[in-house]
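Sample 3 of the quickstart, ligand magnesium ion:
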Amino acid sequence: MSQAILTDIEGTTTSLSFVHDVLFPYARKHLPAFIREHQHEAEVKALLDDLREQQQRYLNEGQIIDLLIYWVEEDRKDTVLKSLQGLLWRRGYESGDFTGHIYEDAARRLQQWHATGLQLAIFSSGSVAAQKLLFGYSDYGDLTPLFSHYFDTTTGAKREAGAYTRIAETMHQAPADILFLSDVIEELNAARAAGLQTTQLVREGQATGEHPVASTFDAIQVG
Ligand SMILES: CSCCC(=O)C(=O)COP(=O)(O)O
Ligand SMILES: [Mg+2]
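Result:
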């Protein structure tokens, strides 16, 4: 019997197009000015130092901006990029440039599950800060009180079983008591390898047949 639901964001609670047509273009547009203005502030400086260390070479301001924009365009799930995006998007949400897209069925079912006592958590490549912004400024208002935990790639890669084992430990749940929802088969395979239950959301894609399938949150069997 599931005690907890762990959900992906992009392609699961939220449309691919919101991420690719709203968030990523916003990041691309505002990244250069953001880096120029904030590169010497502690939080941003620490991230840029991590980036230089990761690249094993000194990168000047222009090289950093070019590299990050290239990564935005190729949707690189890099922890430094994702952390910077989280900082960047704050301004967009706070100024009302956009709200976080959540499918109506996802918002409604998450609220129902929470009301019945299921523990809810997020696992996304987007940084924890970005996750809290998306649900905090969502189309359905502030949904952050629904979630007990938020996990990003600092916990581990979404396609590796170890991340799901660590998440279950942190949530104080047996892996078998957690239902993981995602649109990406490699993520579902990794979660299943760690012992979690799985359901694939197929809102805009093709089901593979390897996991239970749901086209909306209304079709998810919590058992
Ligand atoms: C929650 S931040 C916006 C989405 C994002 O940047 C991203 O990489 C989404 O990845 P996911 O693991 O949720 O598919
Ligand atoms: Mg996804």
